[in-house]
Amino acid sequence: MIPRGDPARLLCARDNEPMAQDRDRILERQRAAASRLACLIGGVSEAALRRAPGPGKWSVVEVIAHLAEDELSSTWRYRQMLEHPGVELTAFDQNLWAQWGDYARWEIGEALALYRLLREANIRFLSRLTTGEWTHWGTHRERGRMTIGELAAHMCDHDERHFTQIERGIVRYNVAG
Predict the structure, then answer these.
(1) Residue 157, Cβ neighbours under 10 Å: how many?
(2) How far is CA 134 from the centre of its chain?
(3) Which is nearest to 165 in space by CA: 62, 75, 92, 73?
(4) Confidence band (pLDDT; 50, 70, 90) for 15?
């Protein structure tokens, strides 16, 4: 996990060395995520990947579909913050997206491939940004002001939360199944 510490670290243009180190760690974590996800689900039965842990809870397939579509929303947000510093970053209802997107019916390979492709596109984009561009920001309705760098770090933490959820779901299935 990247220590959040002082949020000004990613905002302070005169403190470029720590910002560059944070950026490198963020990009490293983002690069590793799709492979880590593939390893988590490798060899797991289709039944285990499709079984929801309870009413109103997502199966592993649904979690991966969510990760893919959330990566899509981040693609838009990064570019909006760069093009329009200070832009409003609207929130979305992940449960409605899951319903509308029919996440339960996604093919696991397609969900993972979409996540990987969008993540790779975002890494290419983020890797080309200058230190100053990483500080471009928007205002998220739920999280307040956040920079491109903070959103990129948030996405790493978001991945981790869902990877833990996936691990628990697989273990739960193997114990119950």
Answers:
(1) 13
(2) 17
(3) 62
(4) very low
21, pLDDT greater than 50: yes
For residue 169, the one-letter residue type is G
Cβ neighbors of 155 (< 8 A, separation 6 or more) are 30, 70, 71, 74
Angle between helices 16-41 and 108-128 (to 10 degrees): 170
Mean pLDDT value across the chain: 88
pLDDT above 60 (res 152):
yes
Total Cβ atoms within 10 A of residue 113: 14
Q: What is the length of the chain?
A: 177
List all residues 6 or more positions away from 95 whose beta carbon is below 8 Å from its beta carbon: none
Taking only the tens place, the pLDDT of each residue in 77-128 is: 999 999 999 999 999 999 999 999 999 999 999 999 999 999 999 999 999 9
Give the pair of three-digit tokens for residue 160. Answer: 């981790």
Phi and psi at residue 115, to the nearest 5° = -55, -50
Which residues, in sequence order, are bridge partners of residue 144? 140
CB 106 within 8 A of CB 173: no
